[in-house]
Amino acid sequence: MTHDTTLRSDGDALLTAIEDLAWREDDAAERSYGQLAYHADSRRWVITELAPQVAIRAKRIFPRIASTQVGSYTFADNDEVRTELEWFIARYPLVISENDRARLIQGRLAFARIRAEIDQVLNRSWQPTSAPKRLREGKQLRPNQARAVEVARRTGRLLVADDVGLGKTLGALAAVMDEAYLPAAVFAEAHVASQWQDDFIGKFTTLSSHVVQTVEPYVLMDRDIYIFSYSKAPGWVNIAETGRFRSVIFDEVQNLRHGVRTEKGRAAEVFARNAGGLRIGLSATPVFGYGGEIFNILDIIEPGILGTREEFMREWCTSDDEGKMIVKEPAALGAHLRDLNLMIREVGSGPPPNRIIHDVPYDEDAAAADEAFARVLAQRVMTGSFTERGQAARELDMMARHATGVAKAAHVAAYVKILLEAKTPIILGGWHRDVYDIWLKELAPYKPVLYTGSETTRDKDRAKRAFMSGDTDCFIMSLRSGAGLDGLQHRCSTVVHGELDWSREVHKQLAGRLRPHARTDPITEIYLIANGGSDPLIASVQGLKASQAHGIIDPGRGVQRVDSDDSRIKALARMYLERGNS
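^ that's the sequence the OP posted. Answer follows.
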């Protein structure tokens, strides 16, 4: 169907709908329960003078409205909201102008049309009618990549949550392969910027690209794709505000999970707001902690689509505990995101991982130096002032994980030696520099290399080459430094989690470097958990966070609900205080 045909079709349907609903105007003149108007300055719909009995019903139908709110009720303007408001005034007539009624009907028709088109695209029997023109000869898109292209171009915004290894990067690049969407900006983690340029753009497309080198802006040569690290992008917001970048792609979009409270989040919001083409987020694990993180991400990609933060809290969350938005029904929210065509996800067909959980000793002597100070911090967490509690909680979190990592480091190394003696290439995941130092000393005969936050991009590239060439079988990687890294799957199928992160999704990203969903042999994941320190508590908290993440990303896949958080830091504090009294 051509664009002109679509416009004529929508125009005819709009006229018919207005004629069919003409009787409602006469009815509204006799019986109306309030007024509804569109405010162009704020791009919001406002209901006023709503009859009390209907206001009660409205608060049940629209959970975003606070139960105590009276007077006027505001709604964001998008096709979904227009559809819902049109349905509402059919049941409870409101006084509304002819232009505003037409706006509602237009939104409802557009919503239904786009949904029908996307439903066809998402059908397994769907086939693309053409290939992107800027793909290199001999290259073609996988079905999931072609679907991402079609959905993104129909909606203008999309979160692609396909499993690790299923080609989200190429799908996003294919979506912007049109003059209407170029030039595009890409936000990526610093250690994969060159990978975007060489392994993806250069290998699969004829697009030109440039990796932005500094935070300070400089004159950019004309290119199709400009690659920014998340840390450099804030310096370029003034350029983004000019509309220079027609589209923006956020790789590993979980970097924006804290929203505009962070510098990179504020920069991303400016780039997205001024991108008149496409806004695409990529991540198999967009939710690292609590489910509310998805709001922060999507409110940058499509502002207001989930309401304001307060409205989202009322509609979807149980509480805002210490700044964390805990979603009460993650699977329902996940289904809602799909219903809005905000998110698509392809699940890989690879074999399930062989997951081994092994207890290792907790060395009390190694942790003794940290234990005494940890008990002091624990006391402050439980009894200090508000400011003291916050500072002490952060320090206790770091101290407890550090103490646990050090206390089990030698035992982790002893386990790893068994694998290395068997000539098994491994990724060893950790977090603390002191822990790395112990591992480097204990595993020195096996020539381990480091890929952590402390190494330069050049050092990381050197470490990857040493591992890939077989110079070493031990690749020590920071739990949070490997997102987006590709290629390790060709050398390795075993990952050892030597330290634990509060988020299960961090470990999923680490294991994802081995592309478990795009291979025929199962990977092996080994979790080495200390029988003391913070490990037992972190393992339990991971259960709650995993239920939030999996429910949103994979609704309906039978994720077990976990009901209680119990405040991880206070639980840590009680653990240390009880230990000190024993």
